[in-house]
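Re: that chain you flagged

S.,

Sorry for the slow reply, it's been a week of failed gels. I finally had a moment to sit down with the sequence you sent. For the record, here it is as I used it:
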Amino acid sequence: MDTQIKFFNRSNDRQNSSVAVVQAGLPLGTTTAWRVIRNCAYGSFHPFSYPAEMSIQIKDKQGASSTKVPAVFGERFTVDRNAEDGLELTGSGSSANPHSIEIRSELAIETVEVKVFKDNRHLALFPDLEAGGAIDFSLSSTIAIGVVPRIRDSQVLGAAVLNNIYSEFSLDGLASADIVMRGGGGDGAARAFEFSLENIVPV
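Prediction finished late last night. Pasting the structure tokens below so you have them in one place:
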């Protein structure tokens, strides 16, 4: 089921810094800025949902993409070209691991990207599905959150940025919760930003 989240800004920051929410536990080079919260002033809140459902999409090096396809753990998909030479992503049975999604390429020569979406927002990128190869991935129900300047939605995040997104929260079994940001500030009393999970409502 979906988890309903409210992000509250109770920090000392008066610059309306951008806050990034990402999927935790992904390999380096695959994490994207799933949700960027901007201009959430002190005392304000920003609601969002972390859905159970996800979808996947294939993109080639020329920028052409397949249709997004709903996906659940335990499924296997195949990538190929259709009669019009368009990218096609089709279900092809069960994955070897019931807790992961498997994607196999039937393409002859090209390497493609695998994009993962939640709430129709770009959650993860697996950049190198080679011709004739396969990847499999799984996702936990844990998100990470942090203050990151000059960040763009869907931006692939490197180690330097991820070091600022260090607060992790498991949403497993939660119907709703608040994430509260405190700390910050621009004077001599400034302290690090802190995030806490509060007002938890279990399923």
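What I noticed first: The chain has a mean pLDDT of 94.

Talk soon,
D.
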